[in-house]
Structure formats: C-alpha cells, structure tokens
Sequence to fold (174 residues):
Amino acid sequence: MEFGELIRAAQFAASRHSTQRRKDKARSPFINHPLAVAAILSVEAGIADLATLQAALLHDTVEDTDTSLAELSRDFGEEVALLVEEMTDDKTLPSPRRKAQQIEHAPQLSPKASQIKMADKIANLRDIAISKPRGWTRGRCRVYCDWAKAVVDRIPHRHPVLVELFSEVLAKKP
Fold:
C-alpha cells in the first residue's frame, strides 16, 4: 500500500472537516469519526486496500463539506470517488427519508462500500455507547441502534470480522 496516499487522504479529510464537531457531549473533532472508520477497517478487520481506506477517510466529505465528487476523482481517483458516492446521503432530503434510503440502498452496495458502511455503523454505535449525543434519550439511542442494524442486515457483502464487531457493539447498545 502507498502510505503517502493514505496520509494525503487523511490530511484532506482533516482539512475539510476542520471546523466540524461531533454531536457527543465532549463535542469532539469530527475528523475522529473518519479516522475511527479507517482504523476499524485496517487495524481490526485487516483490510489493506488503499482505495477502501482512502474512501473511509473521505466518506463524509461530499455529504458534510463543500467537496465535490469531481474533486475527489481528480485528487484520489475514480474508484475512491465512486466509493464515497455510494456512502453519501442526499442532504436535501429530510432525515427520516435519508435513513429509509440507506436501508433501501444497502443491498446495492459494492463489496468495498459494504465494508466502509459496516465500519461506519460500528464507529457510530461505539461513539453512542461511550458518549451519547447531546439531547439524546436512551430511547432515541435504541432507535438509532435498531436502524443501524436494519442497514447492516441488508448489506450484501459481509466481511466476517466486521459482522462480529457489529454484533459485539450492538449487544452493548444503550
């Protein structure tokens, strides 16, 4: 793997997310999330595919910043841009519709996007277990966990380590 290219993606994501904060009580830097997703894939699941790890680091840039898919394609290649596109929600839609679309679209995810989506859900559930978002009740956390499970259950390409990690974190749901 070209580590320089991986670091370049991390730096790009950090720059784009530099002013954003997570919804947790500590208001942690947003970049912690894509770093966690990439770490789950690389360190815990043993995935070493450069495009997958770059897309994991960049998966929220189009959705949450002014980054375009064309820019990602130019800077990181078409494969990375397509993976990010698979991960990107349409923010013009209301949240309930976006959540429903994630469930609907999960069966069409490519193998690499399936891995990123599972790692994303694992990271989010771990974050909720450690420090639930401000204003979230225990009930809302459970609803989120149930929704995440509905997405993961429909993912077609299920990496066995990611399935195990997801099951472990889901068993600890708040």
Notes: The chain has a mean pLDDT of 95. The CA atoms of residues 100 and 147 lie 9 Å apart. The first helix runs from residue 3 to 16. The chain has one domain: 3-171.
